[in-house]
Design a protein that fits this description.
The protein is an alpha+beta fold. A hairpin with a 2-residue loop joins β8 and β9.
Amino acid sequence: MGNPQKIAFVASRVSVAQTARDRLAKRFEHVEPEDADLIVALGGDGFMLETLHEVQKLGKPVYGMNRGTVGFLMNEYSESDLLERLDEAEEEVINPLFMLATDKDGQTHEALAINEVSLLRAGPQAAKLRITVDGRLRLEELICDGCLLATPAGSTAYNYSAHGPILPIGSDVLALTAVAAFRPRRWRGALLPMNAQVRFDVLDPGKRPVMADADSSSIPDVLSVEVRSDPTIKHRILFDPGHGLEERLLREQFS
């Protein structure tokens, strides 16, 4: 893509990221994201997700450098060869999930999730969920601590911690994964087509309240949640050659 002429540097609130941003901004003539050819994000995976959401309407690629505790979506931090690395970087394009949640007051809430949409119990008792896929009832009652729908890009995050599968980036599949399922005890989830539309209905919400979470956007006391992939939104992420999402997903399965 050629050496970019204009770079925007953004950083998480931790001091090591802020210090790196100040140093890089002076060295490479920082501009605002609206005027940049690309954006360099300094932090961990959480900050990378935050940055992707914030700049989604700009359509600019984002190159992350790890200044946090987790860096699955980030490249290694280095200052001296930054322009060369940006010039050689490979682009991955991912689509987020769209969530439409209805709460106990009948209010609807929309949010986008790059990693996953999760429903989690919000009280001392397990949640009871009914799951419908493409208008067809698939699970009458799931008693669990929660359930989530994860993208391939997010399959190594919360999904993997809940014993869900790691999905190849080009698989066009979503992972539906239970969190501590009690009934059906042996149910471990399902693989769904990328274009599937999934609906969760909360059973007995007064006694068993449930919250919905789309990345970091949380909605308390939901009654129903509808989730689908949104192919009209494209997040562009840059990786060093040989260290893209496909390679990282494969490597994670052998670690």
